[in-house]
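Budget justification, computational time. The allocation requested in the original proposal was used primarily to generate structure tokens for proteins on the priority list. As evidence of use, we reproduce two of the resulting records. The first is shown immediately below.
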Amino acid sequence: MSRVSQITASALLKIFFWKTEGLHGFYTEEKAVLVMAPHTSMMDFVIGKLVVMKYRRNCKFFIKKEAFSWFLIGPLLKKWGGIPINRVYKNTHVEDAVKEMDGSKQLWIIITPEGTRRKVRKWKSGFYRIAVQAHVPILVSYIDYKKRIATIVAKVYPSGDYESDLKEIMSYTDGASGLHEK
């Protein structure tokens, strides 16, 4: 990521009155799974992308394969680290992400654990399985539209007890306001 991209991202965040808080201590992590919740809008991607550009992190993210066929958007998604997901075949996503992580010196894989912008009762577990298999921490983040803050609030090392860890992870995003309330 270039210095020009970093300056541009910082300026755009400032122009649109977005603050980044609590991030500096987490940017020392070379490899991590970053979960972002709640995910309620495509704007989450725009704000999140500007934040990772500001801090010059190499990030990849899963996105439905159909998005790559959208005019002009598809090539941008690929350039920005998009990994197309065929949601019909669910068996290899975790393994593919772990291989990507193993082959990289520095990489954050960003995942919206809800798996959709709609209201869900349960998060998908893929983010957790990636972190366990790749032996990396989970960075918990949110974008709060009411406060106009994008932040990483916690680093969680998976214990192997998914239910217990999930309860802790979800507690950090309680109270964050998505663009569209679920």
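The second record produced under the same allocation is shown here.
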Amino acid sequence: MKRLLLSFIVLATTFTLAVAQEDSAVVTKTFGYLSYDAVLKAMPSYAEAQKSYGDLKASYAKELERSETEFSKQFAEYVDGQKSFPENILLKRQKELQQLMEQSLKFKQEAQQLLEKAEAELMQPVHQRLKEALYKVGMQKGYDYIINTDNNSHPFVNTNKGEDITAEVISVVSK
């Protein structure tokens, strides 16, 4: 009888330890992961920034087109009159065409630089809002870090240890 009781106690203890180990094996999520681009593009402020950038880019494109049309017109006039113009007029027109071409190239370079600067300025508050949302979600969930899975930078994420928070962050930035 004592052996039976002792066997029962050993069996009960073993079972209790097994259950305790199983409970301690419950994995807590230590990090979050998301598609930064998906969240960014879901933000209302992103659409507004892209529209403003598109409008500005269209303005520069229109001015570049006007400049190229003017150059083409003057070049055509130069070619048409090339045989009938005296040499000093030809040289003057060549110089004018050269100046127009240089001005056009300079404007094109300046426009590109201004567009890059404008895009950075328009997107800065959008990125800041997303950064704040990531911090908020990360702190609420107690994450050690949040991974951006875009561009196949993390081809494998253990979903037992991490959690996809894309939808949750979209919800936060959409408020």
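A brief technical remark on that second record: The chain has a mean pLDDT of 87.
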